[in-house]
């Protein structure tokens, strides 16, 4: 038995190293290592049959053998020669987060071919994708006692970055309502910057990466001008919407914005019941009744209005 084992070991040592290099290079350069291993298993069976009991080993376990490619002069970064870009994380923001979140972010960035750097910067993140820099503030805890600091920081940063987004984690209905009230209380403008509410931290960072990647692709395809045009049209439509809705007696800008977010178009508002308006917005019962009468009672909407 010992002689048999030594013969197999000697046989394995005499394998053609160049051929083994090709197999391991295919694995190291693959974006889907698991699929590549399945494709190359016949070759790997030959290379490892003397060293591993491949009849009983799974592909997933075989992944542990992949680092052998280092011993043949291959560098793992060969997988990322065409990386998605660079992510710069604010060191102050990092130090204030739970280590589990930082580990998730690091793993998620690595999986999406981003290089991660830690630098003391103004925003929480800066992504560089396709030659375009995108800044983010990531509010992981909605603290009602710290809202002034949050919005003052947003005002300052929006003047410094052409592409700037604020991702806010709002896991509860109460926090979402607090955010909506605060958004208008502190005089935020639609699209300056864009706020992205999310329900959990992981979803929030995934949104950040998707936004950065999308803008990078748009930059490469020279589609930024189209996005700006669409954004201008959206802002114009919002101004028209607000102008129409605020022409209804006792309905102000805050009410119009709340109706737009919760109910939708003017047609949808006209069809919405009083109960629906009360359940989905912070409008008073009196204002909900005014809306219902305005759209459904000719005597009301055709009569002259005096403020």
UniProtKB/TrEMBL annotation:
Highest taxon of the lineage: Eukaryota
Gene3D superfamilies found in the cross-reference section: 5' to 3' exonuclease, C-terminal subdomain
InterPro entries: PTD, RuvA_2-like
Listed SUPFAM superfamilies: RuvA domain 2-like (SSF47781)
Biological process (GO), any one: resolution of meiotic recombination intermediates
Protein's recorded name: Protein PARTING DANCERS-like
Species of provenance: Punica granatum
